[in-house]
């Protein structure tokens, strides 16, 4: 058997228009009128197959930037993976980790995720399978419901936003807490506006102290919140242990769960109720698949989330989630915040009415319009 190998990589640092401001406890993903950094990767093999991947560095969320992701990919990861067999995804990560090692967790996960995604797209296309089937799942899927991210930080505005989103087809809602506002009142307003059947998801982005988290968890539970994500600083597992002891509200970690070993630590100690599946945070589809396996072995469910990423990440993540029969909600909210219509002019056929219908063509299922890339390209 002869297997194709990775022959060439192109890295495209882009800044896409932001159409809505998005702030959270640790910072911001950008403001309306600004631009959002995205790094696209195109991988080509020696048989001429092409795959695309995406990273969305958000410096207010983690330490990677447009510049660091671009130079990491061009200077370190690309040379390391040239010649790697396209289906050897274990070897791919071994090569990337050899080029850029880990500290307390995976090094430069967002840059690695962009490359991992591109290789998965390429390899699935080379086999003629949609990514979800290449990853071991069924070919047929139903539309995946999205979770709408509420951006208003006061009750009346949040209720209005939920009502408008419900009118557009959304049934589930996530929102940010630990930003100095009335979190419990906000949660109550969102629950009332969303209805009893909605999944309501609060994310503190590391913003509480332990006493604040204890009070907030009780109040959010009373207000009808279903899960509290990353209430405490990501490098303070000891605080999660203490919070867990006296809190009935289901908990999840996001920023603290980069590598499979990170999540294993939380699962093994019984500190969380969910894995937050976030492909770009975790170094790509390969490590994310390992995290899901750990969650399954631990008897835990997962929730799908993102970093205001674009269509490539949205579809790649949903292919992976679909392998395990995930039925939503998916907090893949890039369309609320970023205008990528020039890159993906057919996007509205895949995402509408608060849901995503995964394509059934080989690979991830979409590729950016290369003629439009120049409009957003940056010097790095
Ligand atoms: Mg989060």
Task: Walk me through what this model shows.
The chain is an alpha/beta fold and 380 residues long. The chain has two domains: 6-129, Enolase-like, N-terminal domain (Enolase-like, domain 1), CATH 3.30.390; 144-370, Enolase-like C-terminal domain (TIM Barrel, Alpha-Beta Barrel). Helices cover 37% and strands 19% of the residues. The protein is built from 13 helices and 16 strands. Strand 11 (251-253), helix 9 (260-268) and strand 12 (274-277) form a beta-alpha-beta unit. The longest helix is centred in the N-terminal third of the chain and has 19 residues, at 109-127. The mean pLDDT is 97. The structure holds magnesium ion (MG).
Residue windows where pLDDT falls under 50 for at least 5 positions:
none
What is the CATH-assigned architecture of the largest domain? Alpha-Beta Barrel
Structural class: alpha/beta
| Extended strand count | 16
Radius of gyration: 20 Å
Q: pLDDT average, as an integer?
A: 97
N to C succession of SSEs? EEEEEHHHHEEHEHEHEHEHEHEHEHEEH
The portion of residues forming beta strands comes to: 15-25%
Largest sheet: 8 strands, parallel
Hetero compounds: magnesium ion
User: What proportion of the residues is helical, as a percent range?
Assistant: 25-40%
CATH H-level homologous superfamily name of the largest domain: Enolase-like C-terminal domain
Oligomer: single chain
């Amino acid at each position: 058997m002869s297997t194709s190998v990775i022959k060439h990589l192109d890295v495209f640092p882009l800044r896409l228009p932001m159409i809505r401001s998005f702030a959270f406890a640790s910072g911001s993903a950008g403001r309306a009128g600004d631009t959002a950094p995205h790094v696209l990767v195109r991988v080509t093999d020696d048989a001429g197959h092409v795959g695309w991947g995406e990273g969305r560095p958000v410096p207010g969320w983690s330490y990677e930037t447009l510049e660091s992701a671009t130079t990491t990919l061009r200077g370190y990861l690309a040379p390391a993976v040239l010649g790697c067999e396209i289906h050897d995804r274990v070897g791919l990560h071994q090569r990337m980790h050899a080029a850029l090692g880990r500290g307390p967790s995976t090094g430069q996960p967002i840059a690695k995720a962009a490359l991992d995604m591109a290789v998965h797209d390429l390899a699935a296309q080379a086999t003629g399978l949609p990514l979800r089937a290449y990853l071991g799942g069924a070919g047929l899927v139903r539309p995946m419901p999205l979770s709408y991210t509420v951006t208003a930080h006061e009750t009346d505005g949040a209720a209005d936003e939920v009502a408008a989103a419900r009118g557009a087809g959304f049934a589930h809602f996530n929102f940010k807490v630990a930003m100095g506002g009335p979190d419990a009142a906000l949660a109550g307003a969102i629950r009332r506006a969303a209805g009893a059947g909605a999944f309501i998801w609060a994310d503190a982005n590391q913003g509480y102290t332990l006493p604040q988290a204890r009070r907030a968890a009780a109040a959010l539970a009373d207000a009808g919140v279903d899960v509290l994500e990353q209430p405490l600083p990501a490098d303070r597992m000891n605080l999660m242990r203490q919070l867990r002891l006296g809190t009935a509200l289901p908990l999840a970690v996001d920023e603290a769960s980069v590598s499979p070993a990170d999540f294993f630590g939380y699962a093994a100690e019984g500190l969380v109720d969910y894995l937050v599946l976030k492909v770009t945070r975790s170094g790509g589809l390969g490590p994310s698949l390992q995290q899901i396996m750990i969650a399954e072995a631990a008897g835990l469910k997962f929730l799908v989330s993102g970093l205001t990423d674009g269509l490539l990440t949205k579809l790649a993540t949903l292919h992976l989630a679909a392998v395990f029969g995930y039925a939503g909600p998916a907090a893949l909210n890039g369309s609320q915040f970023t205008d990528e219509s020039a890159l993906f002019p057919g996007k509205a056929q895949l995402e509408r009415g608060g849901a995503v219908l995964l394509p059934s063509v080989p690979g991830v299922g979409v590729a950016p319009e290369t003629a439009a890339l120049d409009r957003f390209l940056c010097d790095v």
